[in-house]
Amino acid sequence: MKVDFLKIAVILIYALGITVTAIALFTNYWILVSVPFLGINFHRGLLQWVCIQKFNYNCFTKFPFFPGWLKSVFLCMCVSLGLQIVISVASVFTFFIKSKNAKLRLTIVCAFISFASFVLLSVAIGIFAGKSNVYYFGLTYKGVKVTVDLGWSYWMAIIAVFFTFVTTILEGVQAFKIMKNYKIDYPYPPEAITTWKFTM
To answer: Membrane-crossing residues (predicted)?
Structure first.
């Protein structure tokens, strides 16, 4: 049995992508807040979105009270993670499929789903970066300097975007490889295929 190293590489990258996406989603280091004058260092994530001051009425501690943009980020991350899990399982199934037609179709579906996951992650990190009010060089408020940075959880999401982009490309390459190396059984007679090619 010939070993398909490209497919193995794709599955391994899927596993890495799922791991990195899960770490980004479930860790609370998306935002790092520092107030040196008061000795305050605070971090928060998508699942633990709380404020520095507990008595602040604008604190968002439960999903129904999240602002709309944060709900979008959270949902995009969750759906993307779910899609990555689905396509990783589907990609494993391609090892056991005998029909070249079925293998090609499933590979193409995996490529499209991987692209959808890539888009969702890109949207999530784009919205978060634009809406989280990051101040890399500090913001002076009533004489007190406050620094708000993007934390390592956010950068893990960036890495996850890279992995989903790579898997999309590799799934496309895999599809072209299947079409090139195997004769695909089209559901049309050869005469119809020949006529179609010359009339297009």
So the answer is: 12-32, 72-96, 108-130, 150-170
